[in-house]
């Protein structure tokens, strides 16, 4: 019977034009929202929420991106990144089963975003240190540190200090699980990758910062301005995620206005996600320590874009739903997942291993959950001490 059901499902897919299926999904979502909120109120809430997110969340995140981008470029220019790479190198093999030079990728993605690992991996001098199975796992490894500095600075800016660093430790552990799982999956499918080099280069050169003969003041000024410009690019790149994903998530998270009626104001919604969360509250409370069902909106949003997930935090704080444990878990899962659903396919496609995308996503899903659970129990230990 199950086999016949699958055959019928495939037949429906073949016979149904893609456009019709898309229209059904889109109209179903808006029909549900309009049936609860009323069509005029729903439309006004969508526009008002997106407008408020743009002014009060996106520009704040962009400011952080500009500052952290400038600092990151300054660190690269004057050898701080190289120093960190040398300090972290001894940890790479025992923890992540990667060559020591991989620590450079962790530092760069932490200071910027996930794609930084790809631009680094395309350098044959860098890739020649890796076996193929290790090289492929760089997608998982780099993603777990993407936008890490932004996430931590943002959480500190909300008035939490120890909790983000607890989350950082959770993210590192989640990264270890994700990276090693990906290596396991790759070797299971392609055992010969264990002995094949990612690149064959006759002469390996030590990765160093290029010497810059400009005067000291000019080097500082160029680093700050170039890094800040990169921050602007990152800030612009997160606008679609914050406005589209966060608006939709908030429509499914928040409820009516204080009067108990829908008015079309920003941040009104149908409370669907909290309803689902309340049915699974025992699971989320034990795994993540969440004390409010609304909090599941953050990890769901982080699947697509961590910038959009951060956009939820100020409103959660104002609503009184967040405690120190939630910040630690948000930091861990936000860093580790870091919008991997929207980046893994493109990253593996760039490396030339698109067929392994499903394995990378599975490994990283597990890694993110481990990061969140670890952060929760570490926070519990921290409160006991």
Q: Describe it for me?
A:
This protein is mostly helical and 385 residues long. Helix content is 73%, strand content 0%. It contains 21 helices and no strands. The protein has helices spanning 2-15, 18-37, 39-77, 80-96, 102-111, 116-121, 124-127, 132-136, 138-143, 148-157, 162-189, 216-237, 239-251, 272-279, 281-288, 297-302, 306-310, 313-319, 324-337, 340-351, 357-384. The protein is globular and about 65 Å long.
Number of strands: 0
How many individual helices?
Answer: 21
In one word, what is the shape?
globular
> Strand share of the residues?
under 5%
The mean pLDDT is 82
Structural class: mainly alpha
Helical amount among residues, as a percent range?
Answer: over 70%
- The residue ranges in which pLDDT falls below 50 over 5 or more consecutive positions are 203-211
| Topology pattern, helix = H, strand = E | HHHHHHHHHHHHHHHHHHHHH
- What's the gyration radius in Å? 22 Å
Quote the distance from N terminus to C terminus: 57 Å
The main pleated sheet reads as: none
List keywords for this structure.
385 residues; mainly alpha
Question: What's the topology here?
Answer:
Layout: H1 2-15, H2 18-37, H3 39-77, H4 80-96, H5 102-111, H6 116-121, H7 124-127, H8 132-136, H9 138-143, H10 148-157, H11 162-189, H12 216-237, H13 239-251, H14 272-279, H15 281-288, H16 297-302, H17 306-310, H18 313-319, H19 324-337, H20 340-351, H21 357-384
Helix pairs in contact: 2-3, 3-10, 3-12, 3-13, 4-5, 10-11, 10-19, 11-19, 11-21, 19-21, 20-21
